[in-house]
């Protein structure tokens, strides 16, 4: 059954019909869209700034360790000049004075910031003192480049030494340097670098480490202590000082800042032709350079006066070689600029150089022959430890081949730690088995034992003449037997007996023998050995007059003989007794 449709509602004409609907929801708020590129740029800028800052600060730090930075201050001119003439001229200052690492570099900058006001306010020392106690250990600094276990072969060194005569006469000295080191494969060490492989400790009583009264060395597991015989310091007093472990800078203390002796630089300049070989140029060069000046201007004026010397004193030389004279003046000024700096009180003498033992104590601070152990063993003072016996070629001579460093037949006596002190008194004909011993103790280079490289120099830093050493190794005193002893070595016309014999020499003789010529000596003391082909002839023995009378009942010769007696004798015979007189004057019957 169909349901009827409901009736439609009536709608008023022209009246709008409202349809009930829900109110539309309010739109959700939208977040404004941020632009990311400023953040990215800021981040990149920050990173770039940090990178630039890092690079710039690193470069700045590196620059403050450079030679360019260190040479900005004028007070460093002496050190910088010497550095540019050294073997380390291509290493920056900070390589040695600071070493690797950022922290040590910063520490060094903070420690030295005081110089910012010290230098401008003129509060620095003149010269700058050394050694520098703030240097880092050599294991950190020196061993950046140098390998301590390296073994160095012997190296020939030839020194040219010019005299101050008109010809600038050349003497050449040659020797082998025994640098040595440690042979790691053989576990042995020798030569100068023996000290690297064997622990050594010492006590220095001065800031410059030149006075060393105590040394301790370990070798083959045995520790030996040595004390200077002339030191008055007790063990309690020594305990107050630092015991320093020996390292590279104890010898190489002027490795980069060596202010060399002008005479040595002059010799090099002459050998290299930098300084013209003018007559008397070595003499003039030494006179103007081996003296101290108050100012650079004073030095320049004195050096310039060398030209006036040739112009006034040697006009013929100047007339033909005036250009060479001016070249010489320029070369001398250059040498002065490298060796002396008056405004800082720096000369070749202002800083000790511990390499060598001639101008400064150097090696002889310990190896002076007077540092003895409790059992009388010495820190060896002997040439062959570090170099061979120098060979000398006098002007006009040619250098001879260098001998072996260690002779195969070296006797046991030569291995004594005190041999250099002993050899002056342990001298006899057996020396002739290996050496030419004519004119022993002289310096005319006529034999091995007349070597001017040894005997022509007063070794002021060696301890051979220390009273304790002289007493320890003095020749034994034997009572006279009335019979003159033979001379145990050759005697030539140039022999000077007083080199070894005298009241205070290593071989004393009676005071009344003073002034005796060799001919008189050999009149009583015949030479037991005369070498074949020796230079010069031995002096003819003096034949003393015979005594023309018998000696029975004669108590003393002065009954008839004396300075004003009827039979005068020489003044030095005054104290002679009969037995002495008859050593030379034999009775005729």
The ordered H/E elements are: HHHHHHEEEEHEEEHEHHHHEHEHHHHH
Helix content estimate: 25-40%
Radius of gyration: 42 Å
Structural class: alpha+beta
> What portion of residues belong to β-strands?
5-15%
Number of helices: 18
Low-confidence stretches: 531-536
The average pLDDT value, as a whole number, equals 85
**Biggest pleated sheet:** 5 strands, antiparallel
Q: Can you count the beta strands?
A: 10
Spatial arrangement of strands, main beta sheet: 8-5-6-7-9
Global outline:
elongated
State the distance separating the first and last CA atoms. Answer: 204 Å
Features of the shown structure:
single chain, about 600 residues, alpha+beta, 18 helices
How would you portray this structure in words?
This protein is an alpha+beta fold and 589 residues long. Among the domains are: 61-124, no CATH class; 145-257 and 369-403, no CATH class; 262-344, no CATH class; 544-589, no CATH class. Helix content is 27%, strand content 8%. The chain is built from 18 helices and ten strands. Strands 8-5-6-7-9 form a five-stranded antiparallel beta sheet, with no helix packed on it. A three-stranded antiparallel beta sheet has the order 1-2-10. A two-stranded antiparallel sheet has the order 3-4. Strand 6 and strand 7 (222-228) form a beta hairpin. Residues 531-536 have low confidence and may be disordered.
Strands, helices and their partners?
Elements: H1 37-63, H2 67-70, H3 77-84, H4 93-97, H5 102-111, H6 115-118, E1 155-162, E2 170-177, E3 181-183, E4 188-190, H7 194-197, E5 200-203, E6 214-219, E7 222-228, H8 235-238, E8 244-245, H9 262-272, H10 281-289, H11 296-313, H12 315-339, E9 371-372, H13 383-386, E10 391-393, H14 419-422, H15 452-455, H16 467-472, H17 518-524, H18 578-584
Antiparallel strand pairs: 1-2, 2-10, 3-4, 5-6, 5-8, 6-7, 7-9
């Amino acid at each position: 059954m169909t349901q009827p449709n409901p009736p439609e509602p009536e709608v008023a004409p022209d009246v709008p019909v409202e349809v009930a609907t829900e109110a539309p929801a309010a739109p959700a708020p939208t977040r404004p869209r941020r632009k990311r590129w400023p953040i990215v740029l800021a981040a990149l800028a920050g990173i770039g700034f940090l990178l630039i800052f890092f690079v710039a600060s690193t470069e700045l730090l590196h620059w403050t360790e450079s030679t360019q930075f260190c040479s900005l201050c004028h007070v460093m001119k002496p050190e910088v000049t010497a550095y540019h003439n050294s073997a380390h001229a291509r290493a920056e200052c900070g390589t040695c004075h600071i070493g690797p690492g950022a922290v040590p570099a910063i520490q060094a900058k903070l420690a030295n910031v005081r110089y910012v006001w010290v230098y401008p306010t003129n509060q620095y020392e003149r010269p700058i003192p050394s050694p520098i106690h703030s240097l880092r250990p050599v294991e950190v600094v020196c061993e950046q480049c140098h390998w301590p276990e390296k073994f160095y072969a012997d190296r020939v060194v030839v020194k040219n030494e010019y005299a101050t005569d008109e010809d600038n006469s050349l003497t050449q000295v040659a020797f082998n340097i025994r640098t040595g080191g440690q042979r790691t494969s053989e576990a042995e060490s020798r030569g100068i670098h023996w000290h690297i492989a064997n622990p050594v400790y010492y006590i220095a009583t001065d800031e410059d480490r030149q006075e060393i009264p105590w040394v301790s060395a370990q070798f083959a597991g045995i520790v030996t202590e040595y004390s200077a015989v002339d030191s008055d310091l007790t063990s309690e007093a020594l305990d107050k000082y630092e015991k320093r472990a020996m390292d590279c800078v104890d010898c190489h203390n002027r490795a980069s800042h060596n202010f060399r002796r002008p005479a040595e630089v002059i010799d090099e300049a002459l050998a290299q032709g930098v300084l013209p070989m003018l007559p008397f140029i070595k003499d003039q060069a030494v006179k103007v350079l081996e003296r101290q000046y108050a100012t650079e201007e004073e030095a320049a004026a004195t050096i310039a006066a060398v030209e006036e010397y040739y112009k006034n004193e040697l006009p013929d030389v100047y007339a033909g070689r005036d250009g060479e004279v001016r070249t010489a003046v320029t070369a001398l000024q250059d040498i002065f600029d490298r060796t002396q700096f008056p405004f800082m009180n720096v000369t070749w003498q202002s800083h000790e150089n511990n390499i060598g033992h001639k101008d400064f104590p150097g090696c002889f601070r310990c190896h002076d022959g007077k540092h003895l152990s409790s059992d009388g063993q010495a820190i060896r003072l002997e040439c062959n430890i570090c170099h061979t016996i120098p060979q000398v070629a006098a002007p006009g001579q040619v250098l001879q081949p260098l001998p072996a460093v260690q002779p195969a037949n070296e006797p046991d006596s030569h291995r004594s730690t005190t041999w250099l002190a002993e050899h002056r008194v342990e001298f006899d004909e057996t020396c002739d088995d290996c050496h030419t011993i004519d004119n022993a103790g002289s310096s005319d280079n006529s034999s091995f034992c007349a070597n001017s490289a040894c005997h022509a120099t007063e070794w002021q830093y060696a301890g051979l003449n220390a009273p304790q050493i002289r007493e320890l190794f003095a020749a034994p005193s034997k009572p006279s037997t009335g019979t003159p002893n033979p001379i145990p070595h050759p005697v030539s016309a140039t022999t000077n007996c007083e080199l070894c014999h005298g009241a205070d020499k290593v071989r004393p003789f009676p005071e009344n023998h003073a002034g005796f010529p060799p001919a008189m000596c050999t009149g009583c003391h015949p030479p037991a050995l005369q070498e074949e082909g020796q230079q010069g002839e031995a002096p003819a023995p003096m034949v003393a007059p015979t005594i023309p009378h018998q000696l029975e009942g004669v108590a003393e010769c002065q009954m008839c003989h004396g300075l004003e007696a009827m039979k005068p004798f020489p003044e030095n015979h005054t104290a002679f007794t009969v037995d002495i007189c008859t050593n030379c004057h034999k009775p005729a019957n």
